[in-house]
Amino acid sequence: MNDQSFETLAIHAGQAPDPVTGAVVPPIYQVSTYQQDAIGSLRGGYEYSRSANPSRTALEECLAALEGGRRGLAFASGLAAEDAVLRALCGPGSHVVIPNDAYGGTYRLFAKVYERWGVSFSPVPLADPAAVRAAMRPETALVWLETPTNPLLGIADIEAMAGIAHEAGALLVVDNTFASPYLQQPLALGADVVLHSTTKYIGGHSDVVGGAAVTASDELGERLAYHQNAMGGVAGPFDSWLTLRGIKTLAVRMDRHNANAARVADLLTRHPKVTGVLYPGLPDHPGHETAAKQMRGFGGMVSFRMASEEAAVAVCEATELFILGESLGGVESLIEHPARMTHASAAGSPLEVPADLVRLSVGIEEAGDLLADLEQALKKA
Ligand SMILES: *Cc1c(COP(=O)(O)O)cnc(C)c1O
């Protein structure tokens, strides 16, 4: 199965027709418990839906295939997946190197939750291998990568980071949410664990919250699966089914996100009111070459800066097609002001984002309509 191409795996991996009815889509097994033929004699390994549920298994097998990993695990949210990874791989006294522009919720998890439990962290510019090397300590358990980063679209070299982490006896965890497995496969570049907020591109339709972890080894897969069951933050059957439904079109959606975002970035770079565009597809982006090397396309996220916070807020409130809202990765285009919305929790921290920043999640509508909307909104800002 794994010799098949990404597009084919997205539609078929983990999703054989139902053996009882022939249904071509794995059903929603909306059930908590399973009949045992004798005590401990299970049909297909199912005993209780926190431990395993067939709808979730279908999603987990598909996720593992798409990331080229040994084991996929589906969680109730991206942060539940992060929490399981941290509890499985760190303990009191552990140290983690994180991006100095990590997703605000990830930063909050480290700063407000894990620090209290004795896990320390260092925010470091992950585009700078020397800075990462300097931040490594004997007790560093993980290098935590996000590439591209949310919302500054920073790029880190996954292969180089894997080398630095492994040299120091640490593991490399990559949050692959912004790229999706279609554009970037961190395990093939040396990462040990890949994380996703499946809420975003993987689900792709802004109708479900979920998370995933995929491991490079069976051993890490076992440890994470143990914690998934012991802690219980699992994806429910309906959420698993919705996410899997979204995955089937991931490749075609990402191609369109890439194309539309390139058009939007081009318009913004030429606009007199825009003072800077952050998009890895632009040749002058500091991570452009690395992104071109490790990604199949540059993704659908574009951030840009205006002359002032007021101007940034005004653009966000003036679009008609781009919906003002948090989250990203859905078919519909979204606009937001990170400093006041998604990244408000990082205010006053080393991860505070610029107040003049606007973030776009460029959807798969017709590109001309998107450009026209941005033009009219920028006129009002
Ligand atoms: C949204 C997001 C998360 C958190 O995922 P949830 O599904 O909201 O819990 C983690 N990392 C990145 C990069 C994100 O964009």
Automatic annotation (TrEMBL):
Task: Report the coiled-coil segments.
Answer: none
- Database matches in CDD domains: CGS_like
Q: Does the keyword Transcription regulation apply?
A: no
Question: Which coenzyme or cofactor does it need?
Answer: pyridoxal 5'-phosphate
Which keywords does the record carry? Answer: Pyridoxal phosphate
* Gene3D superfamilies from the UniProt entry: Aspartate Aminotransferase, domain 1, Type I PLP-dependent aspartate aminotransferase-like (Major domain)
From the record, give the transmembrane residue ranges.
Answer: none
InterPro entries from the UniProt entry? Cys/Met-Metab_PyrdxlP-dep_enz, Cys_met_metab_PP, PyrdxlP-dep_Trfase, PyrdxlP-dep_Trfase_major, PyrdxlP-dep_Trfase_small
**Lineage top rank: taxon:** Bacteria
Per the record, the similarity remark reads:
Belongs to the trans-sulfuration enzymes family.
Protein name, please?
Answer: Cystathionine gamma-synthase
Q: Which organism is it from?
A: Actinocorallia aurantiaca
